Amino acid sequence: MKKTLVPDYIRNLKTYQAGKPIDEVAREKGLTRISKIASNENPLGPSPYAIKEMTQALWDLHRYPDMHAHKLKTALSELYKLKKENIILGNGSEGIMGYIARAFLAPGDEVLTSEHTFIGFYILARSAGAKLVKAPLTEDFRYNVKEIANRIHENTKVIYIANPNNPTGTYITKSEFDFLMKHVPDHVLVILDEAYFEFARERDDYPDSMDYRYDNVITLRTFSKAYGLSGVRVGYGFAHEDLISNLTKVKLPFEPNLIAQVGASGAINDHPHLERTVSKNEVEYKRLFDYLDKNGFSPIPSVTNFICIKTGSTEKSTWLFENLLNQGVIIRPLSSNEMPEFVRISIGTKEEMDHFYEAMDKIISEYNKI
Ligand SMILES: Cc1ncc(COP(=O)(O)O)c(C=O)c1O
Question: Is any ligand 1 atom within 6 A of the Cβ of residue 346?
Fold first, then answer.
């Protein structure tokens, strides 16, 4: 048989597609007013505390970062009342998913998750040669814990749950989480991806994973969303120390980098910035939901900083994306999530959302004729 460098599971991978960058749209369209509401970022920007810390740290860039990230881990352990041995940091929470894939997944292992969830995870699981098993969502676009439980069997190695989910914005409740955990054997690792935790935690029936103690669950959170630090890449994971120590063995020692570590240490103490972020998001969420509802889009109720809507066809999604882009508004089509008949809109600042409404008002009657 002919030898090949690239295994089929790598050759068949599709490259991750991010939201269109602002500079690219400015260049391609020759526009100056651009509103990017495509990547669920914090529209208020980073915390001024984070900026101050990061600016000062520029003078130390000739030094390697602290590989034990003492300052940031101390801040996290104080905030969440945990030992440092229970914490791992990475280049974004996606970086930690990469460590999990490297440490625990081998070709042939099964990874169980849902359809229409975070594609970054699909790519990482597939890149380890794992077989992805996807349960369908419920009719109201939520993770279907019964369907997931039905698919657990002896080859299942990892279960991935994004709670809340991206791109639907929905969440599994406490009782659904309890139901699922009753069906998960101890040797199966459950990844609870809580990238949007800060937006969802006020819901009474949202299962905050810090209220549970399972040795086979790892919680992943991030500074990329509510903390406004997507650009420096820093995320964190909480789990049993045995799990963390094994993940640490495969972790690249100096991730996250120096600027990311100090930025996150600054951001974590800026409670007013976080509160402002969440409260402004609530105001603009409500406005966006009402606008979409009024215009017949049936938005999916979301507990995050984005809303997913059904256009009904690939053609309509593409048309909407392109016609908003022509006016400088960047939203996210969802064909790579295998939801081509949906698009996702992130919640921006008031000004960015006004731009979106103005742009929509200009094209809505034409859109309705497609
Ligand atoms: C559900 C979910 N998990 C993880 C991530 C990645 O976050 P990070 O920037 O921390 O790698 C995202 C980013 O969009 C996400 O939506």
Answer: no
